[in-house]
Amino acid sequence: MSTRGILRLIGTGIGVLLLIIGLFIFVERVPEGKVAVVYSPSGGAKEVLNPGWHLVGLFEKTQQYPTRITILKNKVTVTTKDGKTVTMPASYEMKVDRSKVLEIFKELGSQNVEQIQEGYLYNKLFRAARSTVSNYSVLDIYGTKTTEASAKVTEVMAEDVSKLGFIVSNVTLGTPKLDKETEKAIDARVKAAQELELKKQQLENEKIEAEKKKVVAEGEAQKKVIAAEAEAKANATISKSVTPEILKLKELEARNKHGWITIQGSGGLIVDDKK
Predict the structure, then answer these.
(1) What is the DSSP track for 79-94?
(2) Structure pTM?
(3) Dist. CA 227–CA 153, nearest whole Å
(4) Which of 23, 172, 227, 245 has its CA 20 to 30 A from that of 44?
(5) What is the pLDDT of residues 70-100, one digit of tens each?
(6) Would you list the DSSP string of 108-133?
């Protein structure tokens, strides 16, 4: 290969290399489900980029924000109504309002989502959890009212962060971590509650059984009353239908069929005499 060919090949390689470098420097890809704020260290936020490929200036940078739901996880340490300090895992769904992305950037700067989660959003979560959990006892939070408390934390936090442009939903408070003494006390109360519930169920079953027996007894008594009334009615009907004339007629029919049976003398001789 000639010297000119070698130089041309080198020039082509350098051009390709510069093109690749340029793509890394001047082209920004915004994934689906996100938007990016273009900013420069000196001029601040410039514009918002939608998903896709975009050219950016030499000294410009971008910061991306999720417009689709992102699940974030954290934990909070708060105090219950009865003075117990509990640490609870907490998760929630978050995305940003695209129309307020510039306001978010102006307020929080070039922080990424992880930094925002650990800073701004954590503070809002902690405040909402603290104000909510303080209205519940440790047994409530450990037991049946966790879902109710989670819904209230969601409401408070969502309203607080929406002012800046964050959309938060479905805050879920997990099972709190307790000290051993509190765990023992809760276990004892839960056991007592279960035993009480069992006794209530037993009493209810006994009550139901007694009601069944009562209904059966009342039914049997009613049947006897009905039978007695029917028998009395039948006897009354028979009594009304049996007249002296009918009795006389029955007597004559018996004489004609069987005759008379007469006892003569002290010897007890029986004579069958038909008339």
Answers:
(1) E-TTS-EEEEEEEEEE
(2) 0.60
(3) 69
(4) 23
(5) 999 999 999 999 888 889 999 999 999 999 9
(6) HTT--HHHHIIIIIHHHHHHHHHHHH
Give 22's pLDDT tier (boundaries 50, 70, 90): very low
Sole residue written with tokens 């009615």:
233
| Cα-Cα-Cα-Cα dihedral sign, residues 168, 169, 172, 173 | positive
In this structure, are strands 27-30 and 269-273 parallel, antiparallel, or unpaired? unpaired
Residue at token pair 């998760």: 91
Burial class (CB in 10 A: 0-12, 13-18, 19+), 127: middle
34, two tokens: 């996100």
With CA atoms as reference, report the closest residue to 260 among 274, 248, 246.
274
Tokens matching residue 205: 């079953």
Tokens standing for residue 237: 């009907």
The residues near 84 (Cβ < 8 Å, ≥ 6 apart) are 138, 178, 182
